């Protein structure tokens, strides 16, 4: 996939449910529509939670990856 | 040469499927928001309430928490020691210290050993405390609505409560929300 330029990062590493989602939602409020946000998390539940969160909030989950320890989500703000 | 005789398929009369029973009343609106009834003041249930309320708000869902009975003392300011006007109300608050940081477990409390271990474990596993979740929920616009009747019965005054609580309401408001627009959760 083409390289997407990330504009801002939400560091949710070492946070447990529901804080990665809560922190991301709070960060989104301060950003303009269309901003590309990268979220880093270590909570294994976040792989499903971010899919659900994007689906119900209408933000676009552009990419999802993991290096085994850290999960990375690239989200385009609605 | 063999001739295969292909018999025409036996026609089985297909009965028209019975029409599905139509619901007596078509729901006109689908639930759009969440209403949590926070009835319990137990540490683990207050925790669950805060997790669900903050997540719900983070998902862009309008979220209200109706705080009633044992749920209410959890929303008294942490530094308040004794609340109430008469001796019974005062004694009730003395028996169970109010405030979100002073909750007890419903099981395995063991004079505070249980909650202490629970909080230690939460810290170790990076789980946000009920207080942190409450603050996040309030920031994201979750409405915490006290029950007027419980406020009166426990002798709680608005200045006993944490900042940002909504105006107290009664059961009718809650039932109204439940039947018209909200998904209700009773914790």
Characterise this structure.
The complex is a heterodimer of chains A (78) and B (187). Chain A is an alpha+beta fold and 78 residues long. Chain A has a domain at 18-29 and 43-55. Chain A contains two helices and four strands; from the N terminus they run βαβαββ. Chain A has helices spanning 19-29, 46-57; strands at residues 8-12, 36-41, 60-66, 71-76. The longest helix of chain A has 12 residues, at 46-57. Chain A is globular. The two termini of chain A are 21 Å apart. The model of chain A has no long low-confidence stretch (mean pLDDT 93). Chain B has a domain at 33-103 and 130-186: DsrEFH-like (Hypothetical Protein Ychn, Chain: A, 3-Layer(aba) Sandwich), CATH 3.40.1260. Chain B has helices spanning 43-58, 87-95, 113-124, 130-139, 148-154, 171-180, and strands at residues 33-38, 63-67, 143-146, 182-186. Chain B has a four-stranded parallel sheet with strand order 3-2-1-4, sandwiched between helices. The radius of gyration of chain B is 26 Å and the shape is elongated. The relative contact order of chain B is 0.20. The model of chain B has no long low-confidence stretch (mean pLDDT 89).
Tell me the span between the first and last alpha carbons of chain B.
79 Å
Counting H and I runs of at least 4 residues, what is the number of helices of chain A? 2
Our estimate of the beta-strand percent of chain B is: 5-15%
Structural class of chain A: alpha+beta
Structural category of chain B is alpha/beta
Distance between the termini of chain A: 21 Å
DSSP strand content of chain A: 25-35%
Low-confidence stretches of chain A: none
CATH topology of the domain at 33-103 and 130-186 in chain B: Hypothetical Protein Ychn, Chain: A
């Amino acid at each position: 996939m083409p390289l997407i330029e990330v504009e801002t990062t939400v560091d949710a590493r070492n946070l447990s449910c529901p804080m990665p989602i809560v922190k991301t939602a709070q960060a989104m409020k301060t950003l303009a529509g269309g901003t590309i946000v990268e979220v880093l998390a270590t909570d294994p539940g976040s792989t499903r939670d971010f899919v659900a969160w994007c689906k119900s909030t209408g933000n676009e989950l552009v990419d999802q990856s993991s290096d085994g320890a850290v999960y990375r989500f690239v989200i385009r703000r609605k | 040469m063999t001739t295969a005789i292909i018999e025409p398929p036996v026609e089985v009369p297909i009965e028209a499927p019975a029409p599905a029973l139509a619901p007596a009343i078509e729901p006109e609106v689908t639930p759009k928001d969440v209403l949590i009834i926070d009835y319990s003041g137990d540490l683990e249930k207050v925790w669950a309430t805060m997790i669900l309320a903050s997540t719900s708000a983070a998902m862009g869902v309008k979220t209200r928490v109706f705080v009633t009975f044992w749920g209410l003392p959890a929303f008294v300011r942490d530094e308040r020691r004794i609340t109430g006007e008469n001796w019974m109300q005062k004694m009730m608050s003395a028996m169970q210290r109010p405030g979100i940081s002073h909750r007890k477990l419903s099981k395995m409390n063991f004079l505070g050993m249980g909650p202490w271990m629970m909080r230690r474990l939460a810290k170790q596993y990076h789980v946000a405390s009920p207080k942190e979740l409450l603050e996040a929920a309030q920031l994201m616009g979750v409405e915490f609505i006290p029950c007027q009747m419980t406020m009166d019965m426990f002798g709680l005054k608005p200045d006993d409560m944490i900042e940002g609580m909504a105006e107290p309401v009664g059961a009718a408001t809650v039932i109204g929300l439940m039947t018209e627009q909200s998904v209700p959760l009773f914790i």
